[in-house]
Model the fold of this input.
Amino acid sequence: MTAPGSDSSAARPVPRLEVKGVTKRFPGVLANDHVDFAVAPGEVHALLGENGAGKSTLVKMIYGVLHPDEGTLAWNGAVMQIADPHAARALGIGMVFQHFSLFEAMTVLENIALGMDKPGDMALLSERVRDVSEAYGLPLDPDRDVYTLSVGERQRIEIVRCLLQNPKLLIMDEPTSVLTPQEVERLFETLRKLAAEGVSILYISHKLEEIKQLCDRATILRGGRVVAECDPAQETAKSMAQMMIGTELKTVERRAEGVAGEARLVVEGLTLASEEIHGVDLKNVSFAVRAGEIFGIAGVAGNGQNELLLGLSGERLADHESVLRIDGAPAGRSNAGARRKLGLCAVPEERNGHGAVPGMTLVENAVLSGHHRMGLLSSLFIRAAAAARFAQQIVTAFDVRTPGVTASAGSLSGGNLQKFIVGREILQKPKVLVVSQPTWGVDAGAAAAIHQALADLAAEGVAVVVVSQDLDELLAITDRLAVINVGVLSSAMLTREASVEEIGLLMGGVHGVSTDAAVVHPEAAHVA
Amino acid sequence: MPIDAVALVLLTVIGSATPLLFAALGELVVEKSGVLNLGVEGMMILGAVAAFGVAVTTGSGTLGVLAGAAAGMAMAFIFGVLTLTLAANQVATGLALTIFGLGLSALLGVGFIGIPVEPLPKLMLPGVSDLPLIGPLLFGHDALIYLSIFAVAAVAWFLKKSRAGMILRAVGESDISAHSIGYDVIAVRYRAVLFGGAMAGLGGAFLSLVYTPLWNEGMTAGRGWIALALVVFASWRPWRLLAGAYLFGGVTILQLYMQGAGGFDIPAQVMSMLPYLATILVLTIIAAGPWKGRLDAPACLGKPFRPST
Done:
């Protein structure tokens, strides 16, 4: 292991990590195409790109989960083969995963020990966990079971687990997508402190404002290739967005304010016990949405959004008929089919398996939800020609990229399938449309198209409910919004008057952990 | 009832519970790693015939017991190759394993029907073994009975306290997470499955070498299925499994005594159903009760895992 970078031109220090010409192919996809970039010691380096740009594949290779087909990784100037995550950790690479690598039914301490190669004595480790979590303002109780923790607390487990191993490079994969604004601020303080101590941080995100705040340099990926490298402080969010998606970003056009239509969807006191093992019960949820209005429901994941969607779509029934009214008609005890007949259509969060059947064709999927409102059934049979026309209509109107309407839903990319599902519901001319996570995992172009379609639908007098964890999305497209936390829905507020701080406080944590922005609070919140 | 009679009843309960305990304890570890092996019955009966055959042929009970464990492991290995390496459906493979085991054991055992076997040596301590009640209860058993109870303690310690046990639970809880941290999910599961096979084989060996001691076609008579139910009954906890196994052993003996005592105007066949009815009843209560969701079933139970490269 000789260090080739030891030429005496000491102007630039040897990078902590240097990626050279790394290529990774999956069947049918070139995930990374000759990617080059370097991270210096103590640098916070952003990897920026849309979903599917190859960011996650790249960091998985750095962490040893995947192996490059071509190219090299150099650690402190020496070329390395990182065989597996154990080897990566031995070098001093720590990683905080986007979808946490945690074990629900085990304790915080066990989870931390599992992510370490030499955890040593458990009692000692417990002490160290408390020490490290205090030193970096990441309060954690080692003896709690993970399933009782909020998403923010879970992320702390991963960070503390990395810190215990004195990392030289910390990889953070989309760390803020599940946090409240206050939690994000606290995370940034921790990261800045680490960087000041000389730890390099590789920060993966598509949130441009965050990158401007936090990062020293940014490498921008598109379609698996490095398309630009820049100093985020010198760029605007818009200029970085254009590098990221490669085209001009469209903004959603809304007609002027002043919706005063009649209430089309009224929910009064919806209470539902969750059917999931670790689910959240809905407690007395009430709201009303008027014709022409887009109503947003914000909140951190896992605060009852799934239950709320099931309760609105009719997959779960309310206790009384009067709990839910569609255009004045009581429908609390009506199932999903009956609610569709009344004019309430719904798009669930999960596309494959809930919003669409992956193994069925687009035509069949169109029939599944549209058969009544589009008249696709005769008494016993499917009206095949009408169904095919309907599917074709969706594909054309919403620019769904597919070889044809007989392609299976599972063969479409996430963004295209989402356009198909949203389009299928919109073309049924609903009176009320409930959409969960409309642009989750969808590229920016498709997201803009979906947002525009929702805005147009509202302009036609439809009441639209958007459930989303993406606060920026809700702030951009809704007229009013409310926040769901631990199954309780806050009172609604006008979006243009709402402040991010206020919403952030309402979002709280699953367990009512106080999220006072200013205070990095001590371990006092777990008394409950 | 005189004290000796009480001791005798308890002894028979222990005898009928031990094969269940072995098989269920093995399956508990298998399921904790996230694998559902429904082939317990098949592994048990192959263990029974292998143990009996080797013991009769070599005259050594110890070799017989080892052969039983090895036969169970061999069956488990087949299961492992199919479900772990080739990612076949675990339910279907497990059912096939049971049918295969029942058939193969019948074939191998043809020559052994009706042959007696030397019982395993018992643990005797002069003086202590003669104490009333305590003596016969605590001493004078086959080594296998002590082994079964020791195994409960060992498995409980392993799962709760050891690092390897923690990794095994993690693999059963979230295979994808364990893989991304860097654990070899398939290797951990192979070890668990092989352990489960060995334990089922020991349960079978106990049946044919100690409990009857005879070889008979189909002699496990559904005990493998009861063992599977016991794991759920115990909500994947070893000490509860011990209690459950003795409870079910007790039900089995109860019906034998009730049949023997006469005076009950119930057909013998109905009485023989008792342990199986109790199994169904207990499972129904567990599944429907207010504590559902607190079952602590491993989250990845029965899901095949294919690592990406």
